[in-house]
Structure formats: C-alpha cells, structure tokens
Amino acid sequence: MIDFEYARASDVADAVRRIASDPTAKFIAGGTNLIDLMKGNVERPSRLIDISRLPLKTVEKTAAGGVVIGALVPNSDLSYHPLIEQQYPLLASAIRAGASQQLRNMASTGGNLLQRTRCYYFYDTATPCNKREPGSGCSAIKGLNRMHAILGTSDACIATHPSDMCVGLAALEAKVHVMGPGGERTIVFEDFHRLPGETPHLDTNLHPDEIVTTIELPARGFATNYTYLKIRDRLSYAFALVSVAAALELDGGTITEARLALGGVAHKPWRDPAAEAALRGQAGDQTSFARAADLLLRDAKRFAHNAFKIDLARRAIVRALTQAAQGTPQSQSDKKIR
Amino acid sequence: MAPTIGTPTSRVDGHAKVTGEARYAAEFDAPGLAYGSIVGSTIAKGRIARIDASEALRVQGVIDVLTHLNRPHMAEGGGADEDPYRDDVAPEGSPFRPLYDDRIVFSGQPVALVLAETWEAARYAASQVRVDYDEEPHVTDLHRRRDDAVALRERTKVRGDADTAFAAAEVRHAGEYFIAMEHHNPMELFASTVIWDGDGKLTVYDKTQGVQNVQCYLCGVFEMKPEDVRVVSPFVGGAFGSGLRPQYSVALAVMAARALQRSVRLVLTRRQMYTLGYRPGTIERVALGAKADGTLEAVTHEAIGMTSQFEDFARNDTTWSGTLYRSATAKYDHKLARLDVSTPCDMRAPGAATGVYALECAMDELAVALKLDPLELRYRNYSDRDQNEDMPFTSKKLRECYRQGAEAFGWSKRDPQPRAMRDGSELVGWGMATGVWEALQMKTAVRILLTANGHAEVACATSDIGTGTYTIMAQVAADMLGLPLDSISVKLGDSTLPHSPVEGGSWTAASVSNAIASTAKAIRTELLQLAQKMPQSPLAGATPDDVALVDGRIVSKQDAARAVPIADAMRHAAVDRIEQETSADFDEDDGYARNTHSAIFAEVKVDEQLGVIRVTRVVSAVAAGRILNTKTAKSQIMGSVVGGIGMALHEETLIDHDLGRIMNADIAEYHVPVNADVHEIEVIFVDEPDDIVNPLGIKGVGEIGIVGVAAAIANAIYHATGKRVRDLPITLDKLQG
User: Is there a cis peptide before residue B729, judged by omega within 30 degrees of 0?
Assistant: First the structure.
C-alpha cells in the first residue's frame, strides 16, 4: 500500500471538483474492494476522496412509479428496503447472493457498480495482466481460467465482472445517473459496463472525473415471476461460476415479457436481446427456456478450464426461468437450490 | 466433588479468548518496536541478479533493508548431519535458509526484509525494492514429474506376493486417486514479536506449535545460547500442523532484532501464508483383489507425493491399507516428485487423510464390483491384528463404531442402487468410510506447584492451538489433586517450562495428561509424608498407592474416614508450597499397535440439473480410548468433519505452472466450507477402555476426525449420481457429462 492523502468531499459538486483536479485520486465509500486492492498494490491512488458522508443515502419513489436509489445506500439497507423488497425482489435477492452480511453492510450501491474483477492475475502484481498494466499481456488466457468469461472475451482479457447486484440491475434495466464537471448525464445500464476489447483496463464508461449519484429503476419490477440463481463453488461467500437473473411477465401460460441477465460469464452483466425476444410470446416451458439458453450461448467461447461453464450456464438459465415462471424464486438463505 | 474427566467441560481459556484478553504473537508490544515487511520472489527458480533497495531506503521511517548481501551472520547449514536449520520435525534434506544466498528455490521466497518505524512504512517500502533475477526453467506440476519421482529410502514392509494374488483374484479393483495440494489457512497469520531484552537476550513471541523446537532452532541458526532465547506462545489462532516447524518469519524477525539491536515485529500477509508448508498434492493408486465373497487377498497401495527440491517431505500414505483390513498379501510403494516449490508439511492427519481417502474410495468401488454393501465388506475384512507389524492392538472398537454409526445414520435403509434415492430435484447419496490414525505419545514433563491455600499451578512447555489443551490439563490436574477446576491454573507455551515436544500427531492429550498424573502422584507422595508426620496421623502406615487426593484431603482408599486435609498437613509441617516435576515416558516397544479408529457415514444431496453438492448429514463414530472432555473432543471431531468436507468439495491450492506461482493465495479464492456448506454433524464416542496404551487410556482426537471423511462424501456422491470422481476436490464441473 502506498502513502496517500485523504480528503472528505463536502458535497457532490466538491467531490467532482476534487476528482477532476487530480487524475490519480479515487473516491472511497465502503472501501470493500478498493482497500484490498490498495493493500496488494493493485490500486495506487495518491489521494482518497471520502464520499461516504454525501447525502446520497435515500431510496425514493419516482413520479414514473419507479425508484431512485442514492449511490451511497449500503447494499444491506437496499436489499431490505421495503420499496425494493416489494417492487424489486429480484434486486433484493441478487444483493443478498453477494459477499457476506458484513461486506454488504459496508459496501455502497455506487461502489458495487465499480467492483473490479476477481481474476487471480489482476490481484498479483508479479504477473502480467492487461487490466492492471495495459500491454503486459493476459496470463489467464493460457493460465488458470476456470472462473473466467465465456462470452464477449477478447485476446486482451477474459476476466469477468464480479457483482451480483449488477446482474439484477441489468435485468431490471436500471439507469445510472452521474455527475461530472460538465453537469449530469444518464447512462443506461447496458452501456455502463464495457467489454474488454483492446482496453480491458477500462471497466466502465464512467469518466474518471464523474461520480455516480443515483441509480434509477423503472416502474416495471417483475415482482411475481423472478429469480436470482447463483451457482458457485460453495453455497455462500464465493463469486459466481454462473448466475442468472430471470424476470418474466406471463399471461396465462404465455410469456409476454422476459428479461435474462447472466453474471460470471462476461466482463459485464450479460444480456442478449435475441434470447429475450425468443421467449416473448412463447409458452413458459422447458422447450422455450432451452431455446433461449442456446441462443444466448450461441457465441460462447471456451478456454482450457472453463468449458464446463457453457453447459452449466445453459442449465442454470433453464432452471432460473423455471423458478421465475413458477413463482418460486431462489432463496438466498435456505442453504439449497430450489 | 465429581470428577471432571469425561465431562463436557467448557474451555478454561474461553473467557480470555472471547474478551480479547488472550494475547497472540502479533499483539505483544515493546518500547521502540520496529516493523518488518518481507519482499517475496516473483520467480520459482533461479538466482537474484541484483537488488536495488535505494528507493525503499529513501522512504521516510525506513531503518534498513536486509538481503542476503548485508544480513548479519547466520549458521552455514546446507544439509550436514548436524545442520542447525533442522528442527525436531524436519524431514530429510537441507532446510530452507531465509536470506542466506542468491538462490531462488520457490516462488514467493523471501528475498529482502524491510525494517521501518511503522508497519505502513515497511509495507510501502517493500513494494519499492527492485529485484532482478536470472531465471531458470522450473517445474511445479506434480503430474509432469510423476515419472521422475524418486522412491523413498525407507522401504515399508510387504507381505506375500500381492501382484500374483491380485492377478488371481476373482474380483478386482484398481484405481488412481488424486488429492489436491491444500493449505492450512489458520485464522491467525504467522507472526513473531521479538523483544530485545538487552545484552543479546531475546524474548520471542511466536505463533508456533512448539516453543522449545523454535528455541532450539533459533539457537542453532544464530549460534545463541538457550538461556538467551525465550520463546513464548500462550495462544495460537489455529495451526493444523502449519506451526510444527519454525517458519522463516521467526528467523527473519530474530535476524532483524539482532541486526537493529531493538525489538521487532514481523507479521506475514495472507498471500505470504501460501509460501509456507502445505498438504502435498498426492497421486494414489490402490489395487484390491478379493474372493467373490469379499475376502481381501491382495492390497497394493502406491503413492506419489510432491515435495521441494531441498527436502524430502513424506508421511505414511500407504501402509494404512494393510493395517485397516485383513489381507494375506500387501505391497506398498511411495515416491516423491521433487518440484520447484516450498517444502510441504504436516496438515491434520498427514498421510492418512490422503492415503485412507484413496483406500476407502477403492473399497467402495470394490464393494460395487462385488455387489456387496460397503459396510458389510468392511465387516468381512475386519482385522483384529495389525498385520503390517503382526501385533495386536492395545484396543480396537472399530466394530462398535460401525455398529453405532450405522444405527445413528440409518444405514440399513440404504438402497444400494446409485441414483435410486431422491429428494425433489436432488439425488440423494449415502456413503461410508473408515478412519484410522495412530495413538501416539511422547516423553513430556510437567511441573506442579501446590500451595497451602489449595491452589495448584500446572506447567508444561506444550501448546494449545485451539484444541483445548489448557482445559484438559486443568481437568486432569483437578481430578488427580482432588481440587476444584477453578483452583487450577495452567501455564504452557513458554520454552522455560518443563520439556514438551511439539504439539502434533494427536499425542498431546495422552502425553501431557499422563505426565500430570505422574507428577500428581509425586505431590501425593510428598503430602502423605507430611500427613504421616502429624501426631496420631490417621494415615500412619499408608503407602502412596493406598491414598487418593479427594476434595482437598488425603484420603485412605480403604477407609474414607481416615483422611487429612491437605492444608492441615502442609500447615503442620510449615510447608506453604510443594513443587514436583516428573516426566512421563512411554514404552511403545511393548508388542502392541496403537491406533484410533472411526466410521463415517455421509449423506449428500446433489442437484441433478446443476450438479450442486451439499453434505446434508455426517455421522462420525470415533473410538479413541478415554475421552477427557466430551465437549472439546466433540468440537475437535466436528471441526475435522468440516475439514473433510473442505477436502472433498472445496480445497485446492492452484499453481500456475507457467509462472510457478500459487494464484488463489487468499481466503476468498481458496475455498474452505462456510456455514452454508455445513449441515448436521453427529459425533459419537464409542466406549473404548484401554489400560495398555498408557496408564490413563488416552489416545487423542486431533486428527482421527478428518480421516475418511472425504472418502465417505466421495462415495456418497457416487451413490447419488452414479458418477465416480476420483480427483479431489469434487467440484460441480467434475460431475458434468
């Protein structure tokens, strides 16, 4: 860990001013990922701008029937907030699938969006990693890649995005409101995280001088037919091998609207319009679920150790859609898969 | 006053631990403490070409940077017979010498030690040390070196012609099994706080399982006198074998204190914990030949384990197979693949946890081939003698373990057909296995100081690594001295205390308890002498064996009315304290085999679609002689079962063989079971009286609980899914296809 300065932002404008004036500075809120990365010399900010006391801690209804969430609402508070539990149980569930209660108590909503990959090589400064050190090479492509991506990979990086919450937000089509020196702008969730391409060091399209202020959810919450199904190497406190956020609207047995987002398979929460379109108008049965899964995975690419993820993802999608269609969402606390 | 031995007594150190009063190695303080931070090598093999510490030395607060070029004098070592780097439990070879020379022998090896006024400055400066290497090709993959593995010098006993018997057997099974490299991952990081007492004298607070082993090692390495080095380790936050040998961290901390002539603290990072010892990844091949009725005729067990290039670490993986079951022929072979890695070390039930896993899976596969219930196969080959040594056991209640375990589990309701049992979307599997470990005991000394106010202090240099040594020492002393538990205080973990070997091999409970008993007898003898000096002593003419210490009195065993209060006897003689120290030594060449045994029954539920595995029920029935404390012993077995779940499903140290480097070096990515992975665990202690193994009939329970657990789970997974996975850990991807 390097020596760094510490400053506390007095308001959002002050935070933006401070980050814009120092490209080597970083915001800190819960610090659940940043501090670990600093201890390992992966992140080396010269200055930490503490935003944890900014007034971005409310969850409020919008005029449009949705909800707007302050970027500094702790993950636990968000997951147990009545508005979220009632209208967006998918989001509540996705949050509870991640990390541990202690970490969720510390982690902020905005910070969760900016989690960095858990690729082994990214964390070990003794190894080449294009994400940590652009141009140094990707160790995972030829190395240990059991945890790595099967969709949207590039020759430069096959890391995955680690968040569970973001998979839920992707399925719910959240919007991210940000503030920069030039004022506010809104990024649709689909565009918030990036694929690695030739620039794997960039995880998101958030500019370095911008701050996430709020996350907005549209009215549609899929509170009846949803699930967040996370498959991992132990039953809690592990990153996803594959996770699936599934949300359906049904008319009788027919799917009228479908959302499907995957975690643990790509550099961002993975959605595929074709797979979702293939579900609309179909009966909510195993055949249509399997077809959607196959469509979503049609371009999946395997590496030495993660070929199993393709079949696992296919099965997890089918299972998640079944859970959603039956209205029996996965519990995050009962120690078994439903 | 009821005896405390055999009761569920709560930990006597529990309050201190829960309140934070118990201090661990990194928590001791001293004026002017300096802090160390280690720079580790980034290559697995080669030489240090250049070290540039100039940037690090410019960091404010940095005192010095020690490397092989400027370190203070340390002994030469290098593998001679009297190699001072060899500790009590060192394997054959030439132990690693930190900062000794420019040679790199494993990735993460310390190459520099930064010393600073603060931990933060030391850690930052460590990141500024530039090291250039002349890299050489390395091999870290056991599978790549398996054909070049070297046979252990010690050849084990064989009987009969196992190859011919196997070839002629009516039913045969031969299989290869693999156990992944594992790290202990104790909660407490390795840490040493070295207090500079002046004049070169040191007090070393160290995380260790053997204070006197560390003391002896430090004296050898730094050519110091034993009276100048005191090693103290009152509490240990888990070790599982990782603390048996002195770590490079304690050597570096002492080196630094001597170089700076001031007190130094050195704490490893979690990542650096993975540069220490580990359970070696092991390839095991077991071949079993049987008659059609299941009678074993041939047992062959071969193992190839990994070790470093400089030490040949191996524990007995193979001969359990010929001890556990009756077979006319048996053959063993153990080889080591030398790799460019650090030396493995003991990890809970070393050798048995791996070897018996292979044997017990092979037995399950043989049972399938025989169309025989796996438990019935064990009964049919039950051995009342240790055939390897051709000796009877001091005691062996394994049959009772099978019976009571099976009954508690409901084994008789098992449908033998794989995939026959279901619970909703899950396939249900029941598997079982046997466990075996040694009942070891080692010469140990104990001192007891009894004061006239009815308080006793019991002292021994052993350690308590969380197992409950403090508590059982207090219990045994209380019962032997006839005092209440809270009148006993226990001192341990200090090299100035009476001699103890390292705490390992499950020998501590038996060794220390018998030493307490023999010292208590010496106390009793002295008390009786005092009592007999009293006028009209009711104990006149009694011998020490005629009396017992009960409720604070010296009491005739024949006539309880004949008694003298201890306090009266001491007061009359104007003695306010009695101190005795004795050693318990054990004759293990008495023609008996000494073992503990267990039967493990496991239920798994496997999601048929996704392959997610849950261990929903484990029954472990253990025969381990006299159980001193049913509460802490049960905790030991439960912890072992959780360790077995980890071994079966989760634990694996991952090396990138191109880089020669461990990559999942943190406890987020190295998985051990969490609460959600642990369901019902039932522990049964089978009554096993044993007056041969040692006077108190104690066998120890530290390791027996893990042996066989992974096999029971693997066998249950086969029963659930019909798929046999022989490579641990059994992750869900291995069930695919």
Answer: yes
Looking at residue B438, its amino acid is: E
Give the list of residues 6+ apart from residue B379 with CB closer than 8 angstroms, or none: B399, B402
Question: Six-digit token pair at A56?
Answer: 């971005």
Which stretches of chain A drop beneath a pLDDT of 70?
Answer: none
Nearest by CB: B614 against A144, A233, A235: A235
Domains identified in chain B and CATH numbers? 25-137+187-238+243-273 (3.90.1170.50), 282-440+590-735 (3.30.365.10), 442-584 (3.30.365.10)
Nearest to A143 among B124, B656, B733 (CB): B656
Q: Which chain B residues are Cβ-neighbours of A336 within 8 angstroms?
A: 426, 605, 614
Domain with CATH 3.30.390.50 in chain A: 229-326
Tell me the fold of A5-52: 3.30.43
Closest-CA residue in chain B for A338? B425
ipTM of the complex: 0.97
> Which residues in chain B have Cβ-Cβ distances shorter than 8 Å to A312?
610-611, 732-733, 736
CATH 3.30.43.10 domain residues, chain A: 5-52
Q: Which residues of A touch B677 (CB under 8 A)?
A: 234-236
- The predicted-structure confidence for B156-182, as pLDDT tens digits, reads as follows 788 999 999 999 999 999 999 999 999
Q: Does domain A229-326 have CATH number 3.40.190.10?
A: no
Strands B296-307 and B329-338: parallel
**Neighboring chain A residues of B663 at a CB cutoff of 8 Å:** 120-121, 124, 127, 143-144
Q: For residues B421 and B406, give the distance between their C-alpha atoms in angstroms, rounded to a whole number.
A: 18
Q: Is B667 on the interface with A (CB under 8 A)?
A: no
DSSP B228: G
- CA nearest neighbour of B480 among B554, B561, B530, B531: B554
Q: Is the CB of residue B660 less than 8 Å away from at least one CB of chain A?
A: no
Per-residue pLDDT, B154: 66
Q: Which of A41, A146, A319 sits opposite B610 (nearest CB)?
A: A319
End-to-end CA distance of chain B: 63
User: Distance (Å) from the C-alpha of residue A96 to the closest C-alpha of chain B?
Assistant: 13
Point out the residues of chain B with pLDDT beneath 50. none
Per the listing, tokens 């609402």 go with A73
Strand order across the beta sheet in which B680-685 lies: B421-423, B426-438, B595-607, B613-623, B680-685
Strand extents, DSSP E, B138-261: 150-151, 171-179, 191-198, 201-206, 229-232
Cα–Cα distance for residue pair A109/A56, rounded to 1 Å: 10
Residue B99 CA to its chain's centroid (Å): 28
Please report how the helices B211-222 and B248-260 are oriented relative to each other, as an axis angle in degrees rounded to 10: 50
Question: What pLDDT score was predicted for residue A2?
Answer: 86
Q: Give the pLDDT score at B155.
A: 65
